[in-house]
Write a structure and sequence with these properties.
about 675 residues; Glycosyltransferase; Beta-galactosidase, Chain A, domain 5; about 30% helix
Length: about 675
């Protein structure tokens, strides 16, 4: 039986002189595998549609496509989704001619190191990507290379080289997913021109992908199996692959889509921009591919994906760019931009309107409780917060990606206004001073730790407009109690119980971003510019690029506006070392060496002016308590409501009235004649 199947794997090939009529071959396959002639015809139509979907558009009349092509293509790509985004660009004939000119007689490229041992950005993967691009070019009737003999011969050379040499990567992903995915799509396009030897070699390449794994890896592998099924005209295998792919469309609380519409993989770890984006892009592709056939998604599955976009991914996008907190470990050059466009295309292909190209009209506050992730959105600014707990993983270092990102899930908070001032700052960052994070200060390279935050007292609440998030932090030798209160005008940041037992000083970073104009400071009488680094001990207020920073207690703050040098390769090892230089603005609170019960309190005003900062009244923010037991804030800025986190049961008097909380958690309350009424709460 297996021998017969192998003999019926491909349609008629002109190249090898086969004379079997196409319709007879398909009929035989359908009869053998138990598929009806109608099912066989449907498979033919799906294959035809798949091929068509692989060919880049010949014009830029589509609004989304027109916006994308204004962004220069990346020269070095590791991420599969970014690579597929680059594949949407119109053909760059000059670039193609250049690397075709680098094809050696043996079918290798002279500019690819086939002995490369990198686990990310593995060079031989480019061979497969180029073959796919050449096959697209060969099958595109809008170019002068359509069915050109010289191009066909080059493709044969390149395929034959890979089949013979069988390059292998130290990273399993390339062998089982990445390479078969690129080659598989190329084989679909070039199927009618392949020799029998090439066909058999193609099937062997595709057999490296098998059913298994979890989450998006499961989807990728099944997608490759589906391609093999299409090449073999195996209706049963294609349908099994379809079922396997669609089985991941569920929000069940294990790996994959979460009940709060976040996405996790590699354990309980937020993965919107990494595996989540790949998952959504894959589903959007298959939504289109199978629409109008017996393979199409159910209404229930489509509804889940729509919720995933609107109630999950949509919260992460600001000015067409994805929040850095949502990117996972994939902090590549222009990563925020690329992931934003990946999402836009997926939404468009699912038929969800002009999202997210038409502005940033989503306003509100949401805490993703399953992933310890908070987003606060207003008309002109956005804040995001990434926490971690004993339940969740804050960050990961895998395959030389994110080598310095150890602290990214330890309270990293980004403020976005008119632009993304963080992405291009990553090569020159001090990775111990991620905005919002409390950590040791050191000039030594960051060592990645797999230790989770040793506390489950982490969470957030919201009334839809205001919100509060909090975390008890105990990781890598530093302990702290940290909370954030989000309002329409500001973010209030409180820290208490900060302690460590080390010879290294401890700091909390208020902000670290690319400098946009001057960093200025107000000492109560006048404004002046910060040059280089200054150590200030008081309650000076700061302004930088419409963002105000107002200390609410006396603190030691180092303010810096200085030129920094670094490289993308420091954190993302796939990049070659190339020096990057730019100016950073940094505000850092210093807690000293071996701090005991240290505190901080400050407000960030994302839409500030020098006048509004001067006029800001501290009494509008009433810090009732800021201890390692209770952090509570009220005041005019909070409409008189009390926002509090209780890390332990506690009884206290507030404004002359008794308040007793027996369950640790986060609370939004209002004062009544009788005492306090709880409006919103969540127990830890």
């Amino acid at each position: 039986m297996s021998n017969i199947k192998n003999n019926c794997t491909f349609a008629t090939s002109k190249h090898d002189g086969m004379k079997i009529p196409y319709f007879i071959l398909i009929t035989c396959c359908c009869l053998f595998w138990g598929a009806s002639p109608m099912q066989g015809q449907e498979l033919i139509q799906i294959k035809k549609k798949y091929r068509k979907m692989l060919i880049p558009a010949s014009d830029n009349s589509d609004t989304l496509m027109a916006a994308l092509v204004k962004i220069p293509k990346e020269k070095i790509v590791s991420d599969q989704m970014v690579q597929e985004l680059m594949n949407r660009y119109p053909f760059d004939l000059k670039a193609i001619e250049e690397y075709v000119g680098k094809v050696r007689p043996d079918g290798s490229f002279s500019d690819i190191d086939y002995q490369d041992t990198k686990r990310s950005g593995w060079q031989p993967k480019q061979h497969a990507e180029r073959v796919l691009e050449l096959c697209k070019l060969y099958e595109s009737p809008t170019t002068p290379y359509y069915h050109r003999d010289t191009l066909r011969d080059a493709i044969h050379q390149l395929i034959d080289f890979w089949i013979e040499k069988k390059p292998k990567c130290l990273n399993w992903w390339y062998n089982q997913i990445g390479v078969p995915r690129s080659f598989g799509q190329a084989f679909l396009l070039f199927e009618d021109h392949m020799t029998e030897k090439e066909k058999q070699g193609a099937i062997e390449i595709m057999k490296q992908s098998k059913f298994g794994m979890t989450g998006q890896n499961k989807v990728w592998e099944a997608s490759n199996v589906m391609i093999r099924g299409l090449l073999q005209n195996d209706e049963q295998l294609v349908r099994e692959a379809r079922d396997t792919i669609f089985s991941e469309i569920r929000n069940h609380g294990t790996e994959g889509i979460q009940p709060d519409w976040s996405y996790q993989l590699h354990g309980p770890q937020l993965q919107f921009g990494n595996y989540g984006m790949a998952f959504l892009s894959s589903m959007a592709f298959f939504y289109q591919l199978f629409q109008g056939t017996s393979y199409q998604m159910s209404d229930a599955q489509t509804n889940i994906l729509t919720h995933l976009i609107n109630d999950g991914f949509r919260w992460t996008i600001w000015h067409r760019q994805m929040d850095i907190n949502a990117l996972g470990r994939q902090l590549f050059h222009n990563g925020s931009i690329h992931k934003g466009y990946c999402l836009a295309f997926a939404a468009e292909e699912m038929g969800i309107g002009d999202f997210p190209l038409q502005g940033n009209d989503l306003i509100g506050h949401k805490h993703f409780s399953y992933s310890d992730y908070t987003v606060h959105r207003m008309a002109n600014w956005m804040a995001s917060l990434r926490m971690s707990s004993s339940r969740t993983i804050g960050s990961e270092y895998v395959n030389e990606d994110n080598a310095l990102g150890n602290y990214m899930g330890d309270g990293g908070m980004y403020i976005y206004t008119s632009d993304n001032a963080y992405m291009d700052a990553l090569p020159i960052w001090d990775w111990r001073k991620i905005p919002g994070v409390t950590a040791f200060e050191s000039s030594r390279p960051v060592v990645f730790s797999k230790k989770r935050n040793n506390s489950n007292l982490v969470g957030g609440i919201s009334d839809g407009c205001y919100g509060m998030s909090a975390m008890e932090y105990d990781r890598d030798g530093v302990k702290a109690h940290k909370c954030w209160i989000f309002t329409p005008e500001m973010v209030l940041c409180l820290g208490s119980g900060i302690q460590a037992d080390s010879s290294l000083a401890v700091t909390t970073c208020m902000d670290q971003r690319l400098a946009k104009g001057q960093l200025t400071v107000f000492n109560g009488r006048q404004w002046r510019s910060i040059e280089k680094a200054e150590r200030l001990q008081g309650k000076e207020r700061f302004l930088h690029h419409s963002i105000g920073y107002i200390p609410l207690e006396r603190m030691t703050i180092v303010a810096e506006h200085a030129l920094k040098t670094g490289s993308w390769s420091n954190n993302m090892r796939m990049y070659p070392f190339e020096e990057v230089q730019d100016t950073l603005m940094t505000l850092v609170i210093h807690h000293g060496v071996k701090p005991k019960a240290q505190t901080y309190a400050y407000a960030i005003l994302p839409q500030a002016t020098s006048s509004s900062i001067v006029m800001f009244k501290e009494k509008d923010v009433d810090i009732v308590q800021n201890t390692n037991v209770v952090q509570m804030v009220t005041g005019k800025a909070l409409k008189g409501r009390y926002w509090a986190v209780f890390y332990r049961p506690a009884s206290l008097r507030v404004k002359g009235k008794p308040l007793s909380i027996s369950q640790p958690g986060i609370y939004c309350m209002e004062q009544t004649q009788q005492g306090f009424r709880i409006i919103k709460s969540i127990a830890f």
